User: What shape does this take?
Amino acid sequence: MLQVYTGAGFWSQPTDLIPVTSPSPDHLYEYAIVGEGRRVSFRLRDWYLRDNYGSLSISLRAATPADCAGAKYKAFGVESEAQCISEL
Assistant: This one.
């Protein structure tokens, strides 16, 4: 399980920008991460290591108005698309 620390005092699972119901074939996922004015940290919580292989890449970018479109604004913890865009 991917966890993120934004400076809020605890590690948490990031919120999917688009809800994921099953693994993606390309294993690319987008999360909404709202910063707390500190450097963000990531960790993988995995107790069964025998099935692990490959590599993990994490890319960060600033949110855009398109990330607030439709119902995606909910991932940022705001009440509306307009509020999401105004807080970018």
The first strand starts at residue 2 and ends at 5. Strands lie at 2-5, 15-16, 31-32, 41-44. The two ends are 27 Å apart (CA to CA).
